[in-house]
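[agent] plan:
  1. take the single chain provided in the ticket
  2. run structure prediction with default settings
  3. attach structure tokens to the ticket
  4. add a short note for the reviewer (M.T.)
[agent] executing step 1
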Amino acid sequence: MQEQIAKYLNYLRDEVRASPNTLTAYQRDLTQFQAFLDSGARSGVLSPHSIRDFGAFLLRSGQSRSSVERKLSALRSFCKYLARIGSINIGIPQRILLPRKGKRLPRFIEQKPLNDLIESLPVEGELPLRSRLTAELLYGCGLRVSELANIHLEDIDKQRQVIRVRGKGRKERLVPLGEPAVKCLEQYLQVRGRRGQRRRTAANSGCLLINSYGRPFSVRGIQRTVGRLLKMLPESPGQNPHLLRHSFATHLLENGADLRAIQEMLGHASVSTTQKYTHVCRHKLKEVYLQAHPRAQVSDIQDLTLKGAVMRVNVSARHFKASDKLQEFATTEVMRLKKYFDNILDGEVILSWQKGNKMSEINLNVNGIKLTAAEASDDFYKCIPRTVEKLERQLRKYKGKLYRGR
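[agent] step 2 finished; step 3 output follows
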């Protein structure tokens, strides 16, 4: 099978012209499946049953559904290739079923804190300017990290203020550059390569972003740079650079951009991929309702928001300012506890952020009795639900004691 995998990878590289990242991922997935067969699964025979067992093995080992779906998709493509060259039965690929992926809304950062962060970045020195330009292009142009790493100097048209991007499948697209990005780009180009000159290693790369030795700035280097920047935002749902691409699309939609235009700028082959960004936050729905419905009243919005919300929830933040989105999320999570116990009078959520650690503490007033739970994490959107789960267990125990005492 190793020989067949090698031929398939050559086919992907020479005929399909797959990207290096795709080739690496397919090789890793197919090698993992071969190791699974070599361990004695299904007598080491490639079949729909052995592939199904492989998927179950991955799920049991803790792999996410999206990862399992990708690995099985690689196997199905491999089987299609084998069927085409006559190595296996032509009906096998059609019998390989992929697991249904859970639908998750893309995470993003709100406009004001993200803009404030980028504006606060220094503009002196090669490395600070490279960091700022990285953020400007990822957020201002909606680029993938691999696309940014492969941008060359000749891809930039400063006169037309556009940039040529090579996306997935080696497809090219033109993306407009905003004024802040153009200004930062000009400042960076003036100092680009100076650190290499001091080390007597002049820039020998045509890539826009280069490291201190004049070589192309790697994907991993970009990831580390963005991770350090996003750690400065206490409300960021993570440090993945793709958050900036999600934020780019979400903010364009929130400000009235056309979905097709966003599709072109993101380089999506299908508009259905772009449609995942059509999620809007609750305050946006209220605004649309008030503006568009002929019988909308302010009281209607209050009824929609407060319906069934007898419990009062207060959200406070220490050492930072919590956004409306985060406060709304915390309130919604605490309100879920109401279904477990009706006698919750009020809840208090205290959010704190110090030295990169994010903590949520929630206090409940249940018939005059105080229940407390706390949880720490690198993400408020993780630690708040975990704190609520702790309180849920406390409420179940408290409710059980009440019933036993009757």
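[agent] step 4 note for reviewer: Residues 51 and 222 are 36 Å apart (CA to CA).
[agent] ticket updated
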